[in-house]
Specification:
With about 280 residues, the chain is an all-beta fold. The chain is built from one helix and 17 strands. The strands form five sheets. A seven-stranded antiparallel sheet has the order 9-16-10-13-14-15-17, with no helix packed on it. Strands 7-6-5-8 form a four-stranded antiparallel sheet, with no helix packed on it. The longest helix is centred in the C-terminal third of the chain and has 6 residues.
Length: about 280
């Protein structure tokens, strides 16, 4: 998708850009695949804020996405390409030969009226889903499962893709978008190609109000706070933080501090960590 720029009629318009949605459907989303979505404002099931600076924003409906792709050997035709407010990638509404409809993550180069299929003997073309053991090594993939039958968990955001590096024993070696090398059971499903809407990351928000519409509240620097509110706070004028490295409001180091547990059960599947 292309990026549209506007004439600087206002200061906020000067650096603002938006995606060109002309290639997407102008119709309303499939009603049977919509679900209500309550706002959480960054709170977990205990009501505690786990993600700061969230709240407000426009009301959304959740689109049910088929991340499992377990409807084998049944061809589906792409009806529409649509915008999804809940993710950076676009979605595609597909209709199977038996009349069943579902949403999938839209890969690059997928067009309306194209046919896709999932199964062990599917062609290696964008949009088709296969088990990892049936995909040639070196192929770029997305929507990669971590556990067979659980649904895709890797490489789902706009412009992302993983690469199948090798097949050994009962595992497939995957290079993730973060450059991490990880073993995944070869029975897991993956979709061929790269996730579409790769220009999503080049869009400039342009003004604070647009960020508020997305559900993000203002972020204040720690150095602008009082000492009781943040370790960086206090002092007269613009003072340094007075610490060897920046820390969170709760005193934990930031900027490269590793937070992954050394005793996590899935560590044995990671062959090479990211940023090694």
């Amino acid at each position: 998708m292309a990026i549209k720029h506007y004439k600087p009629t206002t200061p906020s318009r000067r650096n603002m850009s938006v995606l060109d949605y002309s290639a997407l459907s102008k119709e309303k989303p499939e009603k049977s695949l919509l679900r209500p979505l309550n706002k959480k404002a960054g709170r977990n099931s205990y009501g505690r804020i786990t993600v700061r600076h969230r709240g407000g924003g426009n009301r959304r409906k959740y689109r049910l996405i088929d991340f499992k792709r377990r409807k084998f050997n049944v061809f589906a035709r792409v009806l529409t390409l649509e915008y999804d407010p809940n993710r950076s990638a676009n979605i595609a509404l597909v209709k199977y030969e038996d009349g069943f409809k579902s949403y999938i993550i839209a890969p690059s180069d997928l067009k309306v009226s194209d046919k896709i299929v999932s199964g062990f003997d599917s062609d290696i073309k964008p949009g088709n889903a296969l088990p990892l053991e049936k995909i040639p090594t070196g192929t770029f993939i997305h929507n990669v499962e971590l556990h067979p039958g659980k649904g895709a968990q890797f490489a789902r955001s706009a412009g992302n893709m993983a690469q199948l590096m090798a097949l050994e024993n009962n595992f497939a070696l995957i290079r993730l978008p973060s450059s991490e090398l990880r073993n995944v059971p070869k029975e897991c499903m993956a979709t061929i190609g790269q996730v579409g809407n790769s220009d999503h990351f080049n869009v400039k928000i342009g003004k604070a109000g647009r960020k508020r519409n997305m559900g993000w509240r203002p972020t204040v620097r720690g150095s602008a706070m009082n000492p009781c509110d943040h370790p960086h706070g206090g002092g007269n004028g613009k003072t340094p933080i007075g610490l060897p490295s920046p820390v969170t409001p709760w005193g934990k180091p930031t900027l490269g501090y590793k937070t992954r547990s050394k005793h996590k059960a899935s560590n044995k599947f990671i062959v090479s960590r990211r940023n090694k």
